[in-house]
Design brief:
129 residues, mainly beta, five-stranded mixed sheet, four-stranded mixed sheet, 9 strands, elongated
Length: 129
């Protein structure tokens, strides 16, 4: 795997998409053994963004012929910010030479403490290539 792609994330609050600084972003990848490998840990800036983070990905030629394996790397992204629900985005696909942008709509906690440990999970299904 000599090629790479990039991942950028943008965190915002409300439907007005107000930038949310100070969101802790963790990007991980599953190893062949099944454990998780930490690729990056970043905090969003005043514009609510991180990145781009360079991630190894299979060469583009791998997507040209059927049966040669998946032509992308899959990573997971988790986002945490005080006062907001945690977000987990699973299986983000990183292609060689492509910038992937992940939008993160952070949802404020309700005023009731029993909701404070909620995590919203967004699984992404593989591309039908």
């Amino acid at each position: 795997m000599a090629a790479s792609g990039t991942l950028q994330a943008r965190a915002f609050a409300s439907s007005a998409q107000l930038p949310l600084p100070g969101v802790a972003i963790r990007i991980t990848e599953r190893t062949p053994e099944g454990s998780m490998k930490l690729l990056a840990l970043r905090i969003t800036d005043e514009s609510g963004t991180i990145g781009p983070i360079v991630i190894e990905a299979p060469e583009r030629a791998g997507s040209q012929a059927p049966g040669t394996g998946q032509p992308f790397t899959q990573v997971d992204l988790s986002a945490e910010c005080p006062g907001y629900e945690q977000i987990l985005v699973e299986d983000i696909q990183i292609f060689a030479g492509v910038r992937t942008i992940q939008e993160l709509a952070m949802i404020p906690y309700p005023q009731y403490p029993e909701y404070y440990n909620l995590t919203e999970v967004f699984p992404i299904s593989p591309q039908a290539l």
